[in-house]
Amino acid sequence: MNLVLSSIISVISRRSSEDYALVMVNNTIKKLYDEYNFLRYAQIKTSRYLEIERIVNIDSSIDSISQEKLGKAIEEIIKNIVVAIGGNAGFFFIKEVKNNVGTRYSLKLKEIGADLDFMQFNYEVDKKQIKKTVNYNTDVFYRVIKIIIDLLDKKYGRSFSISTIQNLIEEYSKKYSFLQKVKIIDVRYTFGSNEINIYDDLDILKPQYVGMAIENLIFGLIQKLQNLDKPIHIDEFKRQLTHEYMEKLTELGVDLNKKQINYSLLIKNIIKALIEVISNLSTQQYAIYAMNSFLKNVDSKFFFLKQIEVTNIDSDDIFNICIMTNLDEISETDIRRSIQNLLEKIIDNFGEKLGQQFIDDFKDCLDNFYLLKVEEIGVNLHLIQLRHQMKLKT
Length: 394
What we know:
By secondary structure, the protein is mostly helical. It has 18 helices and 6 strands.
């Protein structure tokens, strides 16, 4: 048992991380407690700081268990992990575990009923049979949280990453009760802890329920980061997912292709960029005055832009953009057309030479995240430049 569990952890660790492997094997064993009570004799420990201890510890009491029961338990552990891994990876997982334990112990496992060759040969059939009764909610949830933590860590630092995702989980725990049993710990300061701790069996929950929680966490995070002016794009998250996990998320009902745009933040950042461009041509005081004038003179159907006002806060060149309408209730079509209308009025006002350069300067001043959002909703900045050229020629 010790050799098999150590081999499983080693194989999973090579494809992900040791922490992830420990959590997966621990959760798999716990799921089988009711049927194989003797699995409680197997203890999996973290080795992050406890280097002098063994990861797998097996109580000698397990020697009293019949070889038939032990073989069946080992077979079920491997089958459950194969299903959690999913896709073609399951086939290679069995093969790697077999290579790890070696020929001698592979034959011994076969004798007690855990035939790795048979499991590998019948993998596709076994997968279909097991998938009907076993969910992989825990596996997918863990992977999503791990990706988010690492992604935020690279962009904004570990402390920000841990606190942000933990606060988000607590926020959504009111709607999804199982999140109350999820704790994120900064292992840099906690001796011997796992980073992601799930104190509940998510695999007994309906997959769609867990999927809804995952989707809300992902897009809730994107929204929260936009509000903090620390944008992150959904594509950055998707690039970290393997094809197998994309399929699993789809099966849980998670739609990563939803367009989640905070129109208030988008418009605010557009106005900030426009003020910066105009300020470079004159002064910020004039830029704010001009911006307010442009907003008030857009077409009447874009009434929501008329309800935006820019004001100076103090003498330190800081200004405030006050939006008196909930722009998130405005349709994407109207948001797109209003942005186009505003930009066209501004460049027409600056004449031939400055008008042509204005769009290029605007793109330089607008944060790349919001520039991408502008393009996503269909604002064609190049076309606005061409229209301006055609007006000058007529």
